[in-house]
Amino acid sequence: MTHRHIYPVCLLLILAACEQSISLRVDSEIPTPVIARMPVTMGILYRDELRNYVYEENSDERPNWKIDSGSSHIALFEQILGSMFEQTKEVAGTDSDATVDAVLAPSVAEMQFALPAETKSDFYEAWIKYDVELYNRDGSPIANWSVTGYGKSSTEFMKSRDKGLNAAVNQALRDAGARFALGFSRVEEVGAWLEQVDSSADGAD
Question: Do residues 128 and 113 lie in contact, with contact meaning Cβ atoms separated by under 8 Å?
Fold first, then answer.
């Protein structure tokens, strides 16, 4: 093959790789849930891994994928936790603040994505799994559990890949937030801790 034929082929391969690559910063819109606030001052520990979370993949099928969602995770928990508890306070560690009743530390365990071309469907899809840890204010563990969220967006309404993925991630964030809020007190260890908090409050009265 002559150089004259090689160059166009190389150019096509490069263009194809560029079309498959993704560099996306997720822009989230999290609604405020309407729920009764618990009489708790909750400390919140946002570790750097959550603040700066970036999904990265570089495979033949997904070359140079980079999806930055750190700020969206923070926005989700700020909105949800602020609606769940009487007071919230960002803390620097699990045992760093005696003015809180407990400390909650969320982290991203996993994120997954699917494109319409990959699933032979008309949807962009996103999955999120959070690990959540709850500590007493002295740093001793109370509970740890996982929360998942799923979202999808239709190619009928989202014509670009970036917008489709962003919409799917937003739906997954909302789903995870709703599951977290509704399931918080149903975690066995959390429910027992909340009963202790209520008993302490009644005793103080």
Answer: no
pLDDT digits (tens, 9 = 90+) for 48-71: 999 999 999 999 889 999 999 999
- Cα 107–chain centre separation: 8
Measured in degrees and rounded to the nearest 5, phi and psi for residue 176 equal -65, -40
Say if CB 193 and CB 143 are below 8 A apart. Answer: yes
Q: What domains appear along the chain, each with residue ranges and CATH number?
A: 22-204 (3.30.160.150)
How close are the terminal C-alpha atoms of the chain, in Å?
88
Helices 70-84, 161-183: axis angle to 10 degrees equals 30
158: which residues sit within 8 A by CB, 6+ positions away? 124, 164, 167
As a whole number of angstroms, the distance between CA 86 and CA 185 comes to 15
Q: How many CA atoms lie within 13 A of 90 on its CB side?
A: 7
Cβ(194)–Cβ(37) below 8 Å: no
- Alpha-carbon distance 86 to 41, whole Å? 6
> Could you report the per-residue pLDDT of 72-116, keeping only the tens digit for each?
999 999 999 999 999 999 999 998 788 999 999 999 999 999 999
